[in-house]
């Protein structure tokens, strides 16, 4: 019996010694292969067109300690919670949202939950408007700041890496949102308090509870139906008294 136990123990030790180096070798080879694939998958940045928007480029990582962050650094905002997933707005809807709001070079456009920055970049590129994106995800915030720099729009575009609920919205003349219904409901009293009369709020697909839109447009893209809602402050939440 003792001989069996000793023999089994020796066999287990030999298997362990043989498997561990093999596992490390496979892990190292897999990591090297993934690194090569990532390097090979990087492409040159594209020139902007509405049909060929460069948001499928590899995400820009935050620089390591000692590296130069360059001019594309984001503005630090208040820390908070993630309140909605990132779902990119189709570029046709981006254009419709900015058009329905009547954006001009005199506007200050805030996109709350700005993701990869497509709305603020489009507002600056097409309408020469000042634009501010508020995004809590560090990778997305950094990516959109890099794109603003690459497109030479960083003089018009500011990306705040922070919580949209704790961001000062008073400078905005236009606000764009594509958030959850519950998030819109939490945001509503903040906008009612802070936004100046005449400010336009444009929502993609999801209404703002308790508000009445000035304009509602239906847009069909690839067989799918989208809705764009335009609200004007304070008409959206103050009922007009009949004369």
What proportion of the residues is helical, as a percent range? 25-40%
Largest sheet: 8 strands, mixed
Q: Compute the gyration radius: what is it?
A: 25 Å
> How many DSSP helices?
5
Whole-number mean pLDDT: 77
Number of domains: 2
> CATH-wise, what's the superfamily of the largest domain?
Vaccinia Virus protein VP39
| Approximate shape | globular
Roughly what fraction of the amino acids lie in strands?
15-25%
Low-pLDDT regions: 1-71
Which structural class should the secondary elements be placed in?
alpha/beta
Per CATH, the architecture of the largest domain is: 3-Layer(aba) Sandwich
Description:
There is one protein chain. With about 240 residues, the protein is an alpha/beta fold. It folds into two domains: about 1-40; about 70-230, Vaccinia Virus protein VP39 (Rossmann fold), CATH 3.40.50.150. The protein contains five helices and eight strands, in the order αβαβαβαββαβββ. It has helices spanning about 1-40, 90-100, 120-125, 140-150, 180-195, and strands at about 75, 110, 130-135, 155-160, 175, 200-205, 215-220, 225-230. The chain has an eight-stranded mixed beta sheet with strand order 1-4-3-2-5-6-8-7, with helices on one face. Helix 4 links the parallel strand 3 (about 130-135) and strand 4. The longest helix has about 40 residues, at about 1-40. The protein starts with a helix and ends in an 11-residue tail after the last strand. Residues about 1-70 have low confidence and may be disordered.
């Amino acid at each position: 019996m003792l001989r069996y136990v000793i023999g089994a123990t020796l066999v287990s030790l030999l298997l362990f010694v043989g498997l561990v180096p093999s596992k490390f070798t496979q892990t190292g080879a897999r990591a090297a292969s993934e690194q090569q694939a990532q390097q090979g998958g990087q492409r040159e940045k594209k020139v902007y067109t509405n049909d060929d928007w460069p948001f499928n480029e590899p995400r820009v990582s935050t620089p390591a300690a000692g590296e130069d962050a360059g001019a594309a650094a984001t503005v630090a905002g208040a820390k908070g919670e993630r309140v909605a997933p990132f779902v990119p707005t189709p570029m046709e809807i981006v254009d419709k949202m900015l058009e329905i709001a009547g954006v001009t070079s005199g506007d200050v456009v805030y996109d709350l939950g700005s993701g990869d920055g497509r709305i603020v970049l489009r507002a600056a590129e097409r309408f020469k408007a000042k634009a501010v994106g508020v995004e809590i995800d560090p990778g997305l915030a950094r990516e959109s700041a890099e794109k603003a720099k690459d497109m030479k729009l960083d003089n018009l575009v500011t990306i705040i890496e922070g919580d949209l609920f704790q961001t000062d919205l008073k400078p905005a003349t236009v606000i764009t949102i594509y958030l959850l219904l519950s998030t819109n409901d939490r945001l509503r009293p903040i906008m009612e308090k802070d936004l100046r009369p005449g400010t336009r709020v444009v929502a993609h697909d999801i209404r703002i509870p308790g508000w009445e839109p000035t304009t509602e447009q239906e847009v069909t893209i690839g067989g799918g139906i989208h809705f764009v809602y335009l609200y004007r402050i304070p008409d959206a939440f103050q009922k007009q008294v009949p004369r």
